[in-house]
Amino acid sequence: MLTLKGVVLTHKPIGEQDRFIDILTADRGVIEVLVKGAAKISSKTGSATQLFAYSEFSLADRKGGSYFLSSVSPVRIFYGLRSSVTAVALASYFSQVLTYAVLPKSGTPELLRLLLNCLHLLSQKGADEQQIKCIFELRCASLLGFMPDVVMCRRCGAYLPHDLVFSPRKGGFVCEDCYLPPELPSGDIPMPAGSLRAIRHIVLSEPERIFSFRVSERCREPLFAFSEQFLRYHLDREFPALEYYHIITGTPAPGADGST
Ligand SMILES: [Zn+2]
């Protein structure tokens, strides 16, 4: 018997009664658990195994490396999420990213902490959903091993140029003076210094500080475009929940037409 805490990322029905759930854990990455009789289990078990629930699971080993659910109790249910369709879309997007990108049996305490903090903030009234999304994308990319190079202009070494161009593909930036426009669309993103400061804050700060910053209005759009394109480029995958988020918010996906 194994006892661990984790967040439910996905549900997959198996026949009429059972379902598989994927759980993000601190020590074992994403694990797959078979919930027998999910269609008729008690409401307590039901709430503890619903999407985005943070629960303590008791698991029995099963052949083939997955587990049976033996018992479960909720630790934290993010009820506030349900009041916002866009918050649910973002929580689904975060879950799809983690299900895809986290390797089995990998230690992921920081990713679990990041997800829990994002779910907590998304479930608050008046949450700045775009900023939470951006922080998740950049910090998650960094924790998965894709940290952007935020040190200085790659050509002249300027630390904080007034204006710059950041490349999600190359993962680094050059100052406006050093930038040579490419012949083909590149997805490069022009941005002011404030956006770069925010990127540095998100990827370099201690975990407890990553959410505590503000950016001015004109720095937000390039920052948000960069975070989404950077993560998408490195994972090389489309996520249905992200497409849905763009549809319901009426925001075009950055770089969808080959430009920014
Ligand atoms: Zn330069």
Describe the structure.
By secondary structure, the protein is an alpha+beta fold. It has two domains: 1-77, OB fold (Dihydrolipoamide Acetyltransferase, E2P); 93-260, de novo design (two linked rop proteins) (Up-down Bundle). Helix content is 36%, strand content 22%. The protein is built from seven helices and eight strands, in the order E-E-E-H-E-E-H-H-H-E-E-E-H-H-H. The chain has helices at residues 43-48, 85-101, 109-122, 129-143, 193-204, 217-235, 240-249, and strands at 2-14, 18-25, 30-35, 54-61, 67-76, 163-167, 172-175, 189-192. The strands form two sheets. A five-stranded mixed beta barrel has the order 1-2-3-5-4. Helix 2 runs antiparallel to helix 7 and helix 4 runs parallel beside helix 6 (217-235). Bound molecules: zinc ion. The site of zinc ion has 8 residues, from strand 7.
Short synopsis of the structure:
By secondary structure, the chain is an alpha+beta fold. It is 36% helix and 22% strand.
Topology:
Blueprint: E1 2-14, E2 18-25, E3 30-35, H1 43-48, E4 54-61, E5 67-76, H2 85-101, H3 109-122, H4 129-143, E6 163-167, E7 172-175, E8 189-192, H5 193-204, H6 217-235, H7 240-249
Parallel strand pairs: 3-5
Antiparallel strand pairs: 1-2, 1-4, 2-3, 4-5, 6-7, 6-8
Bound molecules: zinc ion.
**Average pLDDT level:** 92
Report the C-alpha radius of gyration, rounded: 20 Å
Please give the CATH architecture of the largest domain. Answer: Up-down Bundle
The CATH homologous superfamily of the largest domain is termed Recombination protein O, C-terminal domain
Count up the domains.
2
Percent helix range:
25-40%
Structural class: alpha+beta
